[in-house]
Design goal:
- This protein is of the alpha/beta class and 538 residues long.
- It has 2 domains: 246 residues, Rossmann fold (3-Layer(aba) Sandwich); 152 residues, P-loop containing nucleotide triphosphate hydrolases (Rossmann fold), CATH 3.40.50.300.
- The protein is built from 20 helices and 20 strands.
- Strand 9 and strand 10 form a beta hairpin.
- The longest helix is centred in the middle third of the chain and has 18 residues.
- It is globular and about 70 Å long.
Length: 538
Amino acid sequence: MSLALNIKNLSLTIDDTGILKGVNLTLEAGKITGLAGRSGSGKSMTAFAAMGLTPSRSRVKGSILLDGQNLLEKTDQEMCALRGQKIAMVFQEPMTALNPLHTIGAQIAETILIHSDATRDEAHAKAETLMERVGLPLHEIAPTRYPHELSGGQRQRVVIAIAIAMNPNVLIADEPTTALDVTTQAQILSLLRELTEQNNIALLLITHDLAVLSSISDSIAVMRDGCIAGVSETKAFFQQTHADNHFGLLPAPVVKPEKPATLEKTPPPILEASNLVCTYIQNKKSLFSEPEIFRAVDGVSLTIRKGEHVGLAGESGCGKSTLARALLGLHELASGSIKIDGEDFPSTTPAHTKHIRKKIQIVFQDPYGSFNPHQRVEQIIAEPFHLFDQPLSKPEQKERVHDALETVGLEKKAAEQFPHEFSGGQRQRIAIARALITEPEIIVFDEATSALDNISRNKVLDLLMQLADERSVSYLFITHDLTVIRDVTDRAFIMKQGRFVEEGPTNQLLTSPKHAYTKALVEAAPTIHWTDPAIEAT
């Protein structure tokens, strides 16, 4: 066994709060160690400690040994020399890890220039080689592109290329596939496994997804309340002896409200979209050429009825989010029409458009990014009140905000707090409260649970099912997570290159897909590989 990184008795406190409590963990060269745990268990903080990126107010004790050197004793300047050279990290959100003002080729080359004597031309040549290696062929993705011109999976590959540029001994990947669709996720995981074996890298893969760890890791360590609760080989971890609890990481199934087997009449349509086309104007290829028109949504029709839950799945870049923005009136239609509760949307007058807009709301993937960090929760939830025909008084607004918070399972006092004081699951509940404040007919969820651990995700989904049962609100779940679609939707659509390629009842679509693309999505979805086949059958 060749140890690459040895974490011994690592403790970390911020002010008087203990975050890490005696963490012990070893990483072997050429092996993938999975680090699992619920949100807030200390997984990311362990990674930040190893990278020397802990908060300024933190106090760290213990040791983190890399090549016999204790990283906790290094100065900031010494850690800068080691980061990228000996130890590197792939962050969860590549868009925030990349510089939006620099080309991707320049950002990969920067690491090489900092840590070697290579000339600028040599660094850029190596950057091109790295792009090819991580699956970014130069004839398709030029090094002169900027991060915003790439898909989520392509940006993640750029971040991986930067991380492996100097062939580090240790690579830490913090939730590297959370925001990716299932096929791209499978490609990234395959790439990480290949790099680990070829470069003899010790990989620490941090994730809350046991299915991901089941398919790629050699061993699994579980964190709970800042401690390592247990470490075992992957095969042993998924044996029958662990099946009942798995350290509390396996969620209870979502409770879907029962619907009558037969209805006296078909519920009325809440949302009707007919032959929608949404376009983007692309850059000119030359000074004298006409700009090309890209059809992100290409002739899509969709009907959602009152109380119905509909899922929409597809790879990154297929047009899902553009369609969501169009349905909300946030992206101009090139052609087609939208009706909400029987009325044209947008309407011919701004006042009527505002009246209709109350009936459709959205919950975004990253609630923290959709909140103003300087506003208290009360101000955030009250934001949609401007859509009301008659202004509400301050006491009325406060009462409605308190009612919305209690509806989503939060206390009234949360109204006086700021977004950063809440966990990811709690912030998502605040986002749901904001969406509910106008008493909408339909809510669109754009990857609204992808960043949550499985337990928190299912609690949020249970809440949504309860609200749907109480209010008969309709939902459109836009997600790459097929388990969400399976658990909570009645019908599902599969989207590819701006068009629906298959639609139908959810169970039928996922168990007996007809289109080759749907089959590929279902097959690419990670599943837990139980040691005992009898467990998997249950």
